[in-house]
Amino acid sequence: MKQYIIKGGTPLSGEVTIGGAKNAALGIIVAAIMADEPVTIDNLPDVDDVRVLLDAIESIGAIVERIDSHTVRINGACINDVSIDEDAIRKIRGSYYLVGALLGKYKKALVALPGGCQIGSRPIDQHIKGFEQLGAKVSIHHGKIDAQAENLVGTHIYLDCPSVGATINIMMAACMAEGKTIIENPAKEPHIVDVANFLNSMGADIKGAGTDKIRINGVSKLHSSEYSIIPDQIEAGTFMVAAAATHGDVLIKNVIPKHLEAISVKLIEIGATVEEYDDAVRVSADHRLGHTQVKTLPYPGFPTDMQPQIATLLALSEGTSTVTESIFENRFKYVDELARMGASIKVEGNVAIIEGVEGFTGAAISAPDLRAGAALVVAGLVAEGYTTIDSIHFIERGYENFEGKITALGAVS
Length: 413
Ligand code: UD1
Fold this sequence. Notes:
Strand content: 15-25%
Number of helices: 14
Strand order of the largest sheet: 2-15-17-16
Helix content: 25-40%
Radius of gyration: 21 Å
Bound molecules: uridine-diphosphate-N-acetylglucosamine
């Protein structure tokens, strides 16, 4: 079994370059099959979730050419099947986008229900509601989502909660529906805007992504495009926290500082230094940081995907902090692992009450999911002695060359 073995105690220092956004890439790879012409996607993160999705679209006939590890050319002209049910795609979340894309283009899709990190119940009722309002009949049988429509017709859709997945999925189906669709209360995450920009680059007509109302005029065809994915907000945020936690000094390059504001504000509040440049942020800390309150919220609030990392930092900071998780109900599984390293965290409902300790000691621990796994790496970087982290396949789903990047910043493994 693959493991990380980390010798803690070295402040991270130097420069790190952030890759393309995983969650944008998953939407964009799938959206690319909606065109019957070649689409070139650049700044693709070379991570497991991306590889699984590329294999999935290839399995239904899309032509997938890996030009290099960060560039792929996809042509959806030869797709000959709308049914996907492989083991691998049942394990990732982004596979649900295949429903929106295939339904939009072919008016039918039969796709295995998505998996992803076990961080809560993760229903897809809002996706289904959107497809049905566009005119599809949707049923779930034998573990698959079966969506079919005679015709998709634009309509007014109000999301009960601003779901990232539902917003992107409905946007994809609606961009090839007849007439105008309005999505009210959509998610506004940076990758929503990126997927909309990508669809527009292929000839879709989507306005308002990133605001409270998305307006889509359906088109009958999408065309070829060349597109570069935005940088990954969460990978960048993870390195920001790692720099602060290790009392290091790291220049994090290829980022959009605006996407990192919620994270920067919290780091500054507890005493770290964050300097913003056009496409980089530099994070440093030379003393023990202070306490604060963090509540996860949809963008532009504090991202739930940064919750385990910031909690780990606060577990080392002075005083009592609280971290409230308001998006997923089961996202504190890493707390027991941190406890093995000496953290003092009590979870009451969706709130973690954190009594900061002066330091961690290395232990044998296991990554419970992707972002929690990254948080445990941060803990290992700080801990006295050696930390062994199992189940790192979770981390490899979403972080490209994580080990190489932290080692280049001085971490000892
Ligand atoms: C996506 C991200 C994930 C991130 C999350 C929130 C991908 C592949 N994954 O997950 O990394 O943590 O956004 O930023 O992009 N909900 C419903 N019904 C639905 C859909 C969602 O009730 O039909 C609820 C969920 O239970 C959750 C909240 O809405 O409480 C947000 O979920 P959503 O934004 O859909 O998350 P995912 O798309 O699963």
